[in-house]
Specification:
The chain has 218 residues and is an all-alpha fold. Helices cover 86% and strands 0% of the residues. The protein has 6 helices and no strands. It has helices at residues 2-36, 39-70, 74-107, 118-139, 142-172, 177-209. The longest helix is centred in the N-terminal third of the chain and has 35 residues, at 2-36. The N and C termini lie far apart (44 Å).
Length: 218
């Protein structure tokens, strides 16, 4: 009985990691498409979101089935509910990537206001956070989850930097307002990806310790 349960948990964990990989790829490609002004790639990110949504729904079905059949208690139950919430967070991250791709498509042939530097750094950092948060989930590593949550400060700092820089553009030349606003939306989407990676860390801490904490208070 326990062996079957452990196999179901492993299957659930593998699907979470698969969804995480798909989400990380969506974030990476959305920003790369923007950086290179590749509208075709942006449209592919938008199209691929449907598969990520389907994966989330499949994970939800798995979680409900395992709870109904195995009636888990304590940490086992927390692990399944953590998987349920993490799948939701990953799906929302993918929505943010899709949002960036839609901005890219909306921009059409308009050139970027400036070469992108900090926005790709934000994307890289949020992908690192997501990867490390999921690793903490697999290993049940509370200390790693706490460290990853603290990394969100670096993403927030980059967002503030992008925000201030784009405000200067807009103040100095009102003709840049539209293009600067597009980039602000992009940066905001990435800032939210960092917040959702932090939410995953909170779930890992709860899964292991039963302690509900809130690291995402910015």
């Amino acid at each position: 009985m326990r062996r079957t349960f452990d196999q179901e948990l492993k299957h659930l964990q593998d699907d979470i990691l698969l969804m995480g990989s798909m989400t990380e790829k969506a974030v990476e490609r959305s920003v790369e498409a923007l950086r290179t002004r590749d509208v075709a790639m942006a449209k592919q990110v938008i199209a691929d979101d449907a598969e990520i949504n389907r994966t989330r729904f499949a994970i939800e079905d798995q979680c409900v089935a395992v709870i109904a059949q195995q009636q888990p208690m304590a940490r086992d139950l927390r692990r399944i509910t953590a998987a349920l919430i993490i799948a939701n967070e990953l799906e929302r991250m993918a929505d943010h990537a899709q949002g960036i791709a839609k901005i890219n498509v909306m921009m059409g042939a308009e050139p970027l206001l400036k070469p992108l530097v900090d926005i790709p750094r934000m994307a890289e950092k949020t992908i690192e956070m997501t990867h490390a948060a999921l690793d903490a989930f697999v290993r049940g590593d509370v200390e790693q989850a706490k460290r990853v949550a603290r990394d969100d400060d670096a993403v927030d700092a980059l967002y503030e930097q992008v925000y201030r820089e784009l405000l200067v553009f807009m103040f100095n030349d009102p003709h840049t307002i539209t293009r600067a606003t597009w980039l602000l939306w992009v940066a905001h989407n990435l800032e939210r990806v960092g917040d959702r990676a932090t939410n995953i860390c909170e779930r890992v801490v709860y899964m292991v310790s039963g302690e509900l904490v809130e690291y995402n208070i910015s």
